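Hi U.,

Before I forget, here's the chain from the pilot set. I'm dumping it here mostly so it's searchable later in email.
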Amino acid sequence: MTFTDRLDQAQVAVLDSLAPGGILCVESIARSAQLTLWRTRGAVSKLTSRGLIVGRHRGGRGMWQIADRGRRTLAARGRYYR
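Structure:
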């Protein structure tokens, strides 16, 4: 991961919210991470494109879950961004 690939605070907050497990919608992630929906959606988009979280569809809603790569990234690098 290069300097330009660093996680921002919103991305770390989203990973932290998803780390305990489960599948959450964007609204639940925003509430848990104490972020606006706008910042949450941006962070989810970036994390998805990097393969750190994965999307699922349930009942016509987009739901998100942390990927193994996201857990490893949070464990290895997330502490520097908190």
